[in-house]
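TICKET: design request
STATUS: open
ATTACHED STRUCTURE:
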């Protein structure tokens, strides 16, 4: 996909596919991160804090602040801004430190 400004391409995107975020199928593009796909789809909250349940979203966008922790295919505490979107990925927004890995996978 290419987004154009007149005749000059300003953004080129890879092939499109879909990922699942909290049970909702959203579009993503080859080469972008999970955080990019979620933000482009209008999502702003990636996790909630452990004690006060405050929403947290993308802050640094470069893997430093850890505000974007999500559960990816059952593994908690992964940074959405650093993880590439790949076809068929299952992402869950995270509460606190996240569930134990087996609980997140639904096997515990
Ligand atoms: S937004 Fe800071 S680590 Fe992801």
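STATUS: resolved
RESOLUTION: sequence designed for all positions
ATTACHED SEQUENCE:
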């Amino acid at each position: 996909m290419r987004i154009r400004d007149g005749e000059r391409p300003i953004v080129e995107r890879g092939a499109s596919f879909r990922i699942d975020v909290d049970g909702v199928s959203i579009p993503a593009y080859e080469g972008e991160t999970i955080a990019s796909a979620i933000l482009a789809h209008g999502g702003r909250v990636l996790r909630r804090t452990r004690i006060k349940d405050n929403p947290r979203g993308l802050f640094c966008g470069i893997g430093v602040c850890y505000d974007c922790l999500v559960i990816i295919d059952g593994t908690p505490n992964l940074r959405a801004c650093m993880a590439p979107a790949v076809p068929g990925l299952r992402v869950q927004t995270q509460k606190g430190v996240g569930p134990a890995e087996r609980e997140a996978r639904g096997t515990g």
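CLOSING REMARK: The two ends are 41 Å apart (CA to CA). The pocket of FE2/S2 (inorganic) cluster is lined by residues 58-61, 63-68, 79, 81 (CB under 6 Å).
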